[in-house]
Amino acid sequence: MNNLCRNQYMNKSLLYLTISIIYGCSNFSTAENQLYLSTTSPTPTFVECPQKPKTRLGKTDTKSLSLTANIITISDTVNSEKQLGYKFYARTGKDFNYRITSNVCIWIFAPDTKLLQRRELIIATQQDSPISGEQMSIDLPLTGEYIIQVSTPTKSSQFNLEMSLGDLPIPEPSVVSSETATSASPSTPISETSSTKASAEEAVKNYYSNLNQGKYQQAWNQLSSSFQNNQKLHPDGYNSYYDWWSGISNIVIQNVQQTNTSTDTSTINVQVKYTKKSGENITQSLELFLIWNSANNNWAIDAVTLN
Fold first, then answer.
1. Based on the domain organization, do 158 and 193 belong to the same domain?
2. Residue 192 CB coordination number (10 Å)
3. How many CA atoms are closer than 13 Å to the CA of 235, on its beta-carbon side?
4. Residue 186 and residue 105 share a domain
5. Interior CA angle at 31 toward 76 and 114, to 5°?
6. Residue 18 in 3-state DSSP?
7. What is the pTM assigned to this prediction?
8. Do 200 and 294 belong to one domain?
């Protein structure tokens, strides 16, 4: 890959690095694609963003931004008929970092009008728990004005867009206090659970460690059977999973925190940085839902949402 875009990862895998962080599927297609989540979590439906915006905004239709190493945050609302555009001037080789905290489509165009990056898949119906925390970085290839265009195929979506020509701080994941976690399952003494079962946090760390070491079969075995057998997520079973994760060269776990636990379930917040073999870097904040597999006496990853 040339230096046009270090993060040209919108290849049917953009949300894949959000959702397939856990299960590594190879192909999402329509709004019928769904994840199997716990009954306490909303079930997201995937919607594909268009190859191009419905209406391509020109420089006169976009708001001018003075982008520096300082962070600019934009909050607004778009719908299927309303598109917003922003333009900024930057020199060749600058790192453009941005974080989108909602389920909207986004396109980024270079000064020569070529598309640098687009978001292909979004979650459309997860209104109570919107997508957040997708952070990307682009090595800008040209000197001139860049255009960012935001829209959504849904009726209406609010979004927050953070941008900078410097680093973006990693947001702290939300944490449920131990008091809240304890009150949620008063009949299960925490000391008894921890003494008889392995730590769910350690299970998550071990999962990413196996992926980092190329132990894909072992990592695959740490997923629940419902994820492994989901043909929409893994049309070719383990082969789909392997094809995806073999394209990742390095995984760094930046934070792992348990937010809730019961006898047979556990919720873990994790901050992870991925480096693809193409050189692209993605940082994501995720919430993992694990279930206890009594047959194998271990934790299995059963669901994931963006935190």
1. no
2. 10
3. 8
4. no
5. 60
6. helix
7. 0.46
8. yes
